[in-house]
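Table 4 source record.
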Amino acid sequence: MTALVRRGDLPAIKLGGRGQWRIERSPLEEFIQRAYEETERELRERRDGRDGESDEPSGGVDEEQ
């Protein structure tokens, strides 16, 4: 969570001197929803072959050998 806050992905405030963060429920739920949507989009693109990657070998040496 700290990395998300420091990058600015998740708004929060630091309370007291013990390093505790306060994150409001609504922005957290919105962040989680965006993460689900982004993951779904990435998986769909990968499945549809639009990300430029292929499950097929690239004509070179098979890496599993």
